[in-house]
Amino acid sequence: MTMDTEMIKYVKNDKFAEFIGLELVSAEPGHAVVRMAVGPHHLNGVGFVQGGAIFTLADYAFAAASNAKGTVTLGINANISYFRTPKGKVLTAEAKEVSSTNRLCSYNVDIYDEDNSLIARLTATGYMKKP
């Protein structure tokens, strides 16, 4: 299956992702990689990467992987678990499809720090709209 370039154009047009500095590294049907260079605006009050920034990174990877299949896919449920405080200045999210039916898809998105330590995992369910 090849990537739907029209759908990826929509993903790349995400103004919030652009605002917080997310970089779409790769996207193909069912798989995507996104990076975020951590800056001062990503930190919470105690100096760690804010959980919402990590969630947004993961959600964007989910959007890229699911929409690369060519059907508008909207998140209908997402749950994130945080495992450790990230180290370094770059976080990477990798989204992988777990299952897909006619209308629903499920993804795991793993978020790694520069040491390649798993810092969080997002599980997401998407609804694929009818064309």
Automatic annotation (TrEMBL):
Thioesterase domain boundaries: 47-119
Gene3D superfamilies on file: Hotdog Thioesterase
Keywords from the UniProt entry: Hydrolase
Molecular function GO terms recorded: acyl-CoA hydrolase activity
Pfam families found in the cross-reference section: 4HBT
CDD domains listed in its UniProt record: PaaI_thioesterase
Protein's UniProt name: Acyl-CoA thioesterase
Organism: Thermoclostridium caenicola
